Amino acid sequence: MIGRLPILDIAPTVFFGGEFVGVKAIANESITVSATIIREGHEALTAEAILFETSGKEFGRFPMRGVWGAPDRFEIEVEAKTTGLWHFAIEAKSGGLRSTSEKYPILVERERALVGAWYEFFPRSEGALRNKDGSVTSGTFKTASQRLRAVANMGFDVLYIPPIHPIGHSHRKGKNNSLTATASDPGVPWGIGNSDGGHDAINPELGTIEDFKDFVGKARDLGIEVALDLALQASPDHPWVKSNEDFFTKRPDGTIAYAENPPKKYQDIYPINFDNNYPALFAEVKRIVKFWISHGISIFRVDNPHTKPVHFWQELIAEINREFPEVIFLSEAFTKPAMMHALSKAGFQQSYTYFTWRVTKSELIDYGREVAHQTSHFFRPNFWVNTPDILPFHLQSGERNIFAIRALLASTMTPSWGMYAGFELFEHESLGEGKEEYLNSEKYEIKIRDWSEAEKKSATLSPFITRLNEIRRKHPALMRLRNLHFHPTDSDSVIAYSKREKDDLVFVIVNLDPKNPVEATVHWEMWVLGFEAESFEVLDLLDQSSHTFSPHTRMRLDPNLIHPKSSGYSVGRILTLKDSSILTRNKK
């Protein structure tokens, strides 16, 4: 029943599975609470948002303001201060009347749930050696540890590693997904399991469980969290095939069905059946997750969660987070939006996104607005520029500036972004025309890269990436999602946006054309920036140059210029106010 003063269309709320689940937030992150409030007659209304701590105690009351152009709409920003399940309600007053809404949950998680710079490498490739006879000796956790400092120096704070478990031998795939593997082919890490063990075992070629723990510890000492792949599938040699046949689907002839994603076939992988013996399967997966948590893992990148029941993830994540609230799950679900959103509502803290394929100005603006404003109360995006599975068409030219453009966009549009090793070396050879896959994919072979030689020849994007991550760390505005605002420009090649967090204001302007200089006027919407001024001074954080902006700023962006201070790339600008006091001195 509505109250004496109807409080309607309350936002943000997330209704899922017959109940309200927590709006996603981190501590001290601003959330705009709003509602439509009406009453009969013409008497004035006032409203307050009430915030409740995890204990249920009232934390504070915040007077709501009217929304311009919407006379019955009220809003205010609130911030929960600690992790845990908070709630909010709205109270309306008019004369002697008073109405209070129901309480709605806000799930406040640790900062890494929203913010992170992710890097992916295959441990077996790091430190691998090519022998005189042409054979390859696999890298190990010990050799991969030597690459950790370079990852940390680039400013990455999460390292995602593909499955590290024993790899099956039956139907093992060869180079470039060949159906015929040679004795030297290492197999696909996602073909999990052989006589050495399954999901709770280490591939002996990588080392021991103690080597793994040492690897995780060294990463932690450098400020890096290791994210482990959770791939719920098995090779035909997995111990489950003998111990738990009911985990799989059998054909009429009694054989176990392998995985298919038409027209692709994965003869080396058995998918899991969640209907035969759900309790036993759930218990086993939970055991595996807790096993790796006990060995230092607090982040899981989940492979293809959209091919498993949504309720399974809701139950699993809830149980794990109840005991280990610090654990984060990243959904790798490049699929229909409804499924991606359902997985997030079910509990996934983050998700891969369509950014990888959003290239034009209009595509980027539409998608940026979607993830920052339309879905941010339940869907946290992680913008990946590439993955081992995806070599986007726009990178296949090998044009270095396009790599810089994509890194700049990904690292400044959202608080979490990621890249797969080799991106910084401009790797771009595709499997074939019309295919978004890498030639000589690392999924099927050990890849040896000469990082030091690339540095000597300046044939790497790593200095530019390092600078981007340095800028991110120093500017709280780039560590937030809901503050993204696009500003009009008069060129389809130039995109401009701003992000503000309290007294930190960042402007980003990018030339989306990797080859040609462009002149354009950016029309800064001053009401969004939060101050009025005929002109204001800004500093370019990439090359340390100073500029004078006005509400209508004419700029020339030439990607062919070389600025040593910006690590050699001039594809765009990241700027901040030289005097941030203007935000409080000259408020609009």
Total discrete domains? 3
User: Percent helix among the residues?
Assistant: 10-25%
- Number of helices in the DSSP assignment: 13
Quaternary: single chain
Strand order of the largest sheet: 13-16-17-22-23-24-25-26
Most strands sheet: 8 strands, parallel, barrel
| Percent of residues in β-strands | 25-35%
Q: Class by helix and strand content?
A: alpha/beta
CATH architecture of the largest domain: Alpha-Beta Barrel
* Unreliable spans: none
Q: Please identify the top-level CATH class of the largest domain.
A: Alpha Beta
Describe this structure in words.
With 588 residues, the chain is of the alpha/beta class. It folds into three domains: 7-109, Immunoglobulins (Immunoglobulin-like, Sandwich), CATH 2.60.40.10; 119-233 and 278-477, TIM Barrel (Alpha-Beta Barrel); 480-585, Sandwich (Immunoglobulin-like), CATH 2.60.40.1180. Helix content is 21%, strand content 28%. It is built from 13 helices and 34 strands. An eight-stranded parallel beta barrel has the order 13-16-17-22-23-24-25-26. Strands 4, 6, 7, 10, 11 and 12 form a six-stranded mixed beta sheet that branches. A six-stranded antiparallel beta sheet has the order 27-28-29-34-31-32, with helices on one face. Helix 9 packs parallel to helix 11 (462-474). The chain is globular and about 80 Å long.
Strand and helix map with partners:
Blueprint: E1 7-11, E2 14-16, E3 19-21, E4 23-26, E5 30-37, E6 46-52, E7 58-63, E8 65-67, E9 70-79, E10 84-94, E11 97-100, E12 104-109, E13 116-120, E14 129-130, E15 136-137, H1 141-145, H2 148-153, E16 158-161, H3 209-221, E17 225-230, E18 233-234, H4 239-243, E19 259-261, E20 264-266, E21 270-271, H5 278-293, E22 299-303, H6 310-323, E23 328-332, H7 337-346, E24 350-352, H8 361-374, E25 381-384, H9 400-413, E26 416-420, H10 451-456, H11 462-474, E27 485-487, E28 494-501, E29 504-511, E30 518-523, H12 526-529, E31 536-540, E32 546-549, E33 552-557, E34 572-577, H13 582-585
Parallel strand pairs: 4-12, 13-16, 13-26, 16-17, 17-22, 22-23, 23-24, 24-25, 25-26
Antiparallel strand pairs: 1-5, 2-3, 5-9, 6-7, 6-10, 8-9, 10-11, 10-12, 14-15, 18-21, 19-20, 27-28, 28-29, 29-34, 30-33, 31-32, 31-34
